[in-house]
Amino acid sequence: MESSINEFFRNVLGDRTPVADQLENIHGLAWAVVDPELLDLCRLRVAMLLGCRSELEILNSDLSSEKVASLSQWSSSSLFNECEMSCLRFTEEFIVDVSSIPDSSAFAVRDRLGDEGFVNFVNALLVVEQRIRLQIVWGKLSQEVSA
Amino acid sequence: MTRSQRVAAANFDSTFREALSLWQEEVVQLGLIDPVTTEVVRLRCAEHHDCYT
Q: What does the alpha-carbon distance between residue A132 and residue A54 come to, in Å, rounded to a whole number?
């Protein structure tokens, strides 16, 4: 399924292969520098908030189905540890208003992942978010063109 | 809104950072959008992301 998303981007980008190559490269690196289960939780939450069905249909890690089913209630669920909750809070604030994320949310993530882990997490989240937003916008444009 | 510095300046994971730079370079080199529109969008994104660099 992940390969079909890469295929989608390659189809849209056409002969602009360097752009598609770089997008695949940063996406792969994002999953290499952040714990895949943690990033997968955040990716799914972004997809839920933005309404990206294609991303909700895939899993990029060994995340349990129980956690996935409880993800929209993460703040009151006992399934999520402190690190996951901190990252999910940060993710939601990142999606809603990236320039207004409070220190408390940022420091909660940094304190759990460390300085480098925090920087990698934010960069990886940026890649995941951009990729999802591109899928949504380009998907809609493709529908309009083919209608 | 006031914010504290969140991480000390350091060269974290240069591979990932360089890859992000390469991606952005490829994107801005796309020539289908006129330069003025591209710049307006870039500035709007910088403001949205609170980026002053």
A: 9
Q: Residue A9 in contact with residue A20, Cβ under 8 Å? A: yes
Helix (H/G/I), strand (E/B), else coil: A117: helix
Q: What is the pLDDT along chain B (53 residues), one digit of tens a residue?
A: 667 788 887 767 789 989 999 998 898 888 888 889 988 988 998 888 777 77
ipTM for the complex shown: 0.81
C-alpha gyration radius of chain A = 16
What gap in Å lies between CA A98 and CA A141, rounded to an integer? 25
SS3 B2: coil
Nearest CA in chain B to A103: B3
Report DSSP state, residue B51: -
Q: Which DSSP category does B35 fall into? A: H
Rounded Cα distance, A28 and B39, in Å: 29
- The partner residue sitting opposite A119, judged by closest CB among B7, B19, B23, is B7
- CA–CA dist A121, A124 (Å, integer): 5
Whole-model pTM: value is 0.91
